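dumping this here so i dont lose it
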């Protein structure tokens, strides 16, 4: 698929897709006319990249963990320095904290909705 279709299917701008390519996160084949052509698998890959970026991971770390997202997984440990492992552990812990916070906020919103709906039901049945 061409870059425009990948952009539309992932909600990611063409400019950002080109940036992902520059960073080595995705790879495009080139057609005879020079247009980029992406394999279908890059739809999921771009969505995964966006999710990792939204979680706060920098592209250099994302590039290193991308093989963990593939199926079958092909993981290379040759560049896993102690610093990179420490960074990943910090990021994992930060994500865990964020997930806990999001879960608390989701539960609070759900409780609020339940209370509002219960109040609406009670008001509707009260003469």
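and the seq i came up w/
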């Amino acid at each position: 698929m061409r870059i425009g279709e990948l952009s539309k299917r992932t909600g990611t701008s063409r400019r950002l897709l080109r940036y992902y390519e520059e960073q080595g996160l995705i790879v495009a084949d080139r057609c005879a006319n020079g247009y980029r052509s992406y394999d279908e698998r890059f739809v999921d890959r771009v969505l995964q990249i966006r999710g990792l970026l939204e979680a706060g991971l920098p592209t250099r770390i994302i590039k290193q963990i991308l093989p963990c997202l593939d199926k079958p997984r092909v993981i290379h440990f040759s560049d896993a320095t102690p610093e990179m492992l420490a960074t990943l552990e910090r990021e994992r812990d930060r994500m865990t904290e964020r997930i806990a916070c999001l879960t608390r906020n989701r539960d609070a919103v759900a409780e609020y909705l339940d209370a509002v709906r219960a109040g609406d039901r009670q008001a509707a049945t009260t003469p």
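Residues 64 and 78 are 10 Å apart (CA to CA).
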